[in-house]
Amino acid sequence: MIANVERIVSLHPSGFDPVPTIRGNMQAAPPNPASFPLRRGTAAIIMRGDRYLVIRRSANVLAPLQYCFPGGGIEGAESESEAIIRELREELGVEIQPRYKVWHNLTRWNVDLAWWMADLGADITPVANPAEVESVHWITADEMLALEELLESNRDFLEALAAGEISLVKPFVSA
């Protein structure tokens, strides 16, 4: 159970690319790496104050009932930002504005994952699509790290953020 969490419960009604930091537990390989082809994905980092938008995945998807930042796979010729817009529309019924990439890593499950800061209007309430998302939460980084069911890649991201390896502030680039 998550303490001090704003939980949203309802049913779904129907770029800049800085030099990435690569981190993560790449020594611990999955049981059969050949069974995990390289896939590409995106994760959205959306904040309200010191709280992050986090979902608990549905029991019907890969990594069931795990907590994570919203996002998902990149399809076909989609760009990272196009994929993250589509994924949040599908998962939460919201329109977001991707801003800039803050991190990039390869998970031990062979997912090439791009982490993007994104904006969601303050007056917009994400609504879980029950086929993909069990619940929606706004929680702090410490609350996320305390979750036993947190996806490993999300733990890697939060630990790199805490270590100062990631900045959520867009770096200044002179013209």
Molecular structure report:
The N terminus is likely disordered. 17% of the residues lie in helices and 29% in strands. The strands form two sheets. Strands 1, 3, 4, 5 and 9 form a five-stranded antiparallel sheet that branches. A four-stranded mixed sheet has the order 6-2-8-7, covered by helices on one side. The protein is globular, with a radius of gyration of 16 Å. It has three helices and nine strands. A hairpin with a 2-residue loop joins strand 3 and strand 4.
Q: What's a quick, concise take on this entry?
A:
This protein is α+β, with helices and mostly antiparallel strands and 175 residues long. The chain is 17% helix and 29% strand. Residues 1-31 have low confidence and may be disordered.
Keywords:
175 residues; alpha+beta; Nucleoside Triphosphate Pyrophosphohydrolase; five-stranded antiparallel sheet; four-stranded mixed sheet; 3 helices; 29% strand; disordered N terminus
* Helix vs. strand class: alpha+beta
Number of domains: 1
**CATH superfamily assignment?**
Nucleoside Triphosphate Pyrophosphohydrolase
Task: Give the overall average pLDDT.
Answer: 84
Q: Count of helical segments?
A: 3
The radius of gyration is 16 Å
| CATH architecture type | Alpha-Beta Complex
- Strand-residue proportion: 25-35%
- Globally, the shape reads globular
